Amino acid sequence: MKDRKAIVKVPASTANLGPGFDTLGMALSLYAWIEMSESKTGETTFEYYGDGMDGLPKDKSNLLYKVAQLVFNEAGVEVPELHIAMYSDIPLARGLGSSASAIVGALVAANALIGSPLSDDKLFQLATELEGHPDNVGASLFGGIVVSAWDGSAAQHVRIEPNERLQTLVAIPAFHLETEKARHALPSGIAMADAVFNVGRSSLLVAALASGELGLIRHAMQDRLHQPYRAALIPGMAEILERAVDFGALGAALSGAGPTLIAFVDANSPDKATLEQFLKGTLAKEGIEAETLWLAPCTSGPVVTVEEGPIGGGAGSTVSITLLDRIKGEVKA
Ligand code: HSE
């Protein structure tokens, strides 16, 4: 890996899609970039770019560093010190899978750095174990819509190609909501009737997404396992989930553990501006400032570039090209 540099572009994701709690995920066209190389200084160093990234640890307690070490240990490779850079357009703690993207990006970058000895399925198992559920990591790793199940030791998945008419509108509240807090809001048990309700909706949703029957999404994107319990944490959410279809959405859900709300929309819908206004207006009524973004499903997983040798800003080059210089034009910064 001497003089090798791996640069990985990894998508954000939305999890649950309403009824598929800890099971369904979809990759979105919003990205983070992770660059990894052997350190030239003999010490592990970090560079972060992007909103809210300043507070992340710059020592070996760093998640990206720990994930990389896990890959090297699994592959039986000893790696000295690393240089790790990250830029992200994925807002932190908003329900768009920022931690899953970081985990997947670091796994893929570290694996690429040592010649990719670990399979994608192995990376999926490691990512699921690290994240504690497979929905976000599966989507970021495989792209498209991913249906998965994890029994605590092994995860299985099937990828579905998103229908080309499927688009999403996300409303991202300005406040953070840690997943742990949103998981604590959930009860320890649920009624049989609610379980049956969700099995039906989740199965119908997978079938509708796989067959392109987008008209069924409004019936399928309903949930009784987590959204009702999380609604109190996100003022305006209940109204948005109930009424988004009246404003032209195919369906609406809490994105992951929130606080972002996501509407599925037919790309040809004439009601997009009205729907966007409804989402923003409903949150504003509750005093919540929110950014709205139109995002397409991202149909591929991480895009990896490996550079070898001391040329053009590659590892070991005397010309220093920062990660931000490299991706300028593709990112918000
Ligand atoms: N399935 C997870 C949850 C996604 O809803 O808690 C957020 O990490």
From TrEMBL:
The protein's role, per its UniProt record: Catalyzes the ATP-dependent phosphorylation of L-homoserine to L-homoserine phosphate.
Pathway given in the UniProt record: Amino-acid biosynthesis; L-threonine biosynthesis; L-threonine from L-aspartate: step 4/5
Organism listed in the record: Paenibacillus pinisoli
Protein name: Homoserine kinase
Compartments reported by the entry: Cytoplasm
Keyword entries, A-Z: Amino-acid biosynthesis, ATP-binding, Cytoplasm, Kinase, Nucleotide-binding, Threonine biosynthesis, Transferase
InterPro entries: GHMP_kinase_C_dom, GHMP_kinase_C_sf, GHMP_kinase_N_dom, GHMP_knse_ATP-bd_CS, Homoserine_kinase, Ribosomal_Su5_D2-typ_SF, Ribsml_uS5_D2-typ_fold_subgr
Domain GHMP kinase N-terminal positions: 62-144
GO cellular component, one term: cytoplasm
Annotated ATP binding sites: P91, L92, A93, R94, G95, L96, G97, S98, S99, A100, S101
Reactions accelerated catalytically: L-homoserine + ATP = O-phospho-L-homoserine + ADP + H(+)
Domain GHMP kinase C-terminal: 206-273
